Amino acid sequence: MLKTLALFLALASSVAAENSIIAGYLARSDATAHLEIDLIQKELEDLIGSETCTDFDKLEDFYNGITGTNKGAYFSTIPTYGLGAGENLAVVTKEYTKYYNKDDFHDEWVRKAIANKSTKFKKGNADFNAAFSTAIPGDCVGSEEVVKKGLSYTSTLYEAFQLAQKAIDLVVDGCIQQADASCTDAVEAWDSSVAIYVGSLEGEDGTNVLDSKGKGSYGKAPYALADKRCANYKNCGPNHDLDTKDETSPINMQILALYAAGSQAAYNGNSGLMKYYLRLISNKAAVPLIQGTFRYYWRLSQGSVSDKEVGEGGAFAFGALPKLWACSTKAEKRAFPEMKIGGGIAGSSTGPGVNIDIIRLAFQCNYRCLGITCKDVGALYDGDATPRIPACDDDDNGSINVCDKPKKNVRTACKDFIKKPGIGGRDKLKFSLAESL
Predict the structure, then answer these.
(1) What residue segments make up the domains of the chain, in order of their start?
(2) Could you tell me the pTM of the whole model?
(3) What CA–CA distance (Å, rounded) separates 30 from 188?
């Protein structure tokens, strides 16, 4: 009896050592290596965090892996899966690569920001020289925001989605753990996707625990962004009604639940379900990017000419615009001129300024296509008692049930912001579970 108990405890201890708890998600594998990728991001941000050009000038050597821990070059290797022989880009990441017409669009974004030059994309270009060349001497805050948020919140999603695609491809090729206990690669790849999305700095519980001074500490990955933005929109927590740092974003709750379901699908070998969950994860991951876009372009619409806010707004738009374009090229065409870094509107002291209503309608009119709701995004308070940007109404918007249609007032307001998807059929997706079976 004692021997049996000792054997059971030893086995239980072995299983525990192999597993990771990631913001409440129970990984079936040890995802430590991917969890700690966020420490590279932290080192980069610590390096340039003073917002001075003196420190920003150190970034190029770090990014190329010459200085620091020599791991900064990791960013230019994204995606670590998807560009090799026989590897696939996920459908959800093609929204980015087709919009920018580059598989390494994130690398070009950073390198052009470092060089203070213009990007050479098919869509979504930024002219960093025009935007930031008049900065206060020694102040490179705009370029800093472009780099750190572009990497942390868009490049990281690219990597996370591609690791999920790796898991899907492995299952399609027959690596099913339920049928073969030795075939753990697919489940490990799925766990790695979760690890990249959350990062090690969030800990096992994923809450930004408050210290004695009432301050919390966020991580450096997309999970942290969702928690930051829900505080600005007062829609943290399970009831979408809180704004404190120690409350989790409902978007993160949804995404981690979808990841958990996808883990079970990977274990059982259901690649169709995995594709379906990855699509839903990608949809919900766009919400904090849209929230950030609204937040900073609202400020720019109020007369701000701050390099910091131009840089932050542009960095959020960098991840949000490809999703919008995939749903409606008409909406992207209307919104992009208001949002372009160095475009003469955002942050301009002489131009007409940003029209926040164009940006708001471009996204809200396409929530149905994007697979998100008015409730997901919420109303922008940003510390005010009344909303700076009110939330839209899901009943009016027709964005709760896939069978709903927008009401007449919404159809009228949205007529110039819908249709003509950048990716054929993207606006016809209904996100029905039946599609995956």
Answers:
(1) 38-436
(2) 0.93
(3) 8
